[in-house]
Design goal:
The chain has 192 residues and is of the alpha/beta class. Helices cover 35% and strands 18% of the residues. An 8-stranded parallel β-barrel has the order 1-2-3-4-5-6-7-8. Helix 3 links the parallel strand 5 and strand 6.
Length: 192
């Protein structure tokens, strides 16, 4: 299962409207892969939200990835156990060389590497890697790396030049979902 070069991560606390409306606007702007985080929700409301987002993504051929170890496509935190049976798609959050190596060894299909830049979403979450740190760590990965954390559209080319396969964004798109088009244009230019 191949992933697009842009992953959108959800955070309803940063939304400019309801999460479903924001994701719909992001999909209208071109988003095709969404990671549903919202791990603080109870099982039933989270499942209902996941179904609503699947309905938004389906007409565009989009993919919903669930944070945590449940579903056909999952995104695991650095400390989550690898699920058994293995889902069709497994991503993992990574922050250093050891986590990148472990994600590859366990069979993850992709990783997010963060924080590349300072981010309002997770202030103080480890030292920022910067483009230099991203470039130093991407060779350790044996799976596609998505640069995450404070990545703005002007940073996309530098992230790809540093070895990232794509970018993962949360706050900017949750606040202004139309920015997806700007990220996609930057990804297209950088890949050309």
């Amino acid at each position: 299962m191949s992933l697009p070069s842009l992953l959108v991560l959800t955070d309803r606390t940063q939304c400019s409207g309801s999460l479903v409306e924001v994701v719909a606007a992001a999909v209208d702007a071109g988003a095709r892969a969404v990671v549903l985080r919202e791990k603080d929700l109870a099982k039933t409301p989270r499942a209902e939200l996941a179904e609503q987002l699947r309905l938004v993504l389906a007409p565009a051929g989009g993919l919903l990835i669930l944070a945590g170890a449940c579903g056909d496509a999952v995104h695991l935190a650095a400390c989550d156990a690898f699920p058994s049976p293995r889902p069709a798609l497994v991503g993992r959050s990574c922050h250093d060389a050891a986590e990148l190596a472990a994600a590859g060894a366990e069979g993850s299909d992709y990783v997010t590497l963060s924080p590349v830049f300072a981010t309002a979403s997770k202030p103080g979450y480890g030292p920022v890697l910067g483009v230099e740190g991203l470039a130093a760590l991407t060779p350790v990965a044996t799976t596609p790396v998505y640069a995450l954390g404070g990545v703005q559209p002007p940073d996309v080319a530098d992230c790809l030049a540093a070895g990232a396969s794509g970018v993962a964004v949360m706050g900017p798109v949750m606040r202004t979902p139309q920015l997806v088009a700007t990220y996609l244009a930057a990804l297209s230019r950088a890949a050309a």
